[in-house]
Amino acid sequence: MTATGASTGSPVLAWAGLVARLVTGGVWIVAGALKITEPDASIAAVRAYQLLPSSVAEVVGLALPAVELVVGLALVLGVLTRGAAVVSALLFAAFVVGIASVWARGIEIDCGCFGGGGAKAGAASAYPWEIARDVALLAASLLVACLRRTRLSLDSLLFDRAPDERVAVTEGAVN
Hints:
With 175 residues, the protein is mostly helical. 70% of the residues lie in helices and 2% in strands. The chain has a two-stranded antiparallel sheet.
């Protein structure tokens, strides 16, 4: 395997994994970057969902932009990719549940996905699109999590060894 290769068994799947990794990671970077300089707005967006106690919503609102940036960077760089993809999938699942919850309860808010957030008249009309977007990104995250490696990832450089290197390391440990 080369440093740019992917151990997926299928070149098409390896390239699809790269696209999924870059798109999902890019979304996280943009979302986190837009919110990280506005902690009060991020907290208000989390509180608007009315799902968490106020003190927990504050912690989530403060931490979420940084988590989004870290996950996004890990995905774009392809480092610790599977772990980042699992966290990404969990976050997207939580966002789908959150949006569906406010929709079911008749609460109209800006989702706060890319900054902003809070009460917004007529926001319910955007909920189907927001849920569809997050479900698609959840599926992309799950694809990346299921692949051992994707193309052009730092994981391949850092963690993959050629078979003869593994044998040499194993034999060195035995002697």
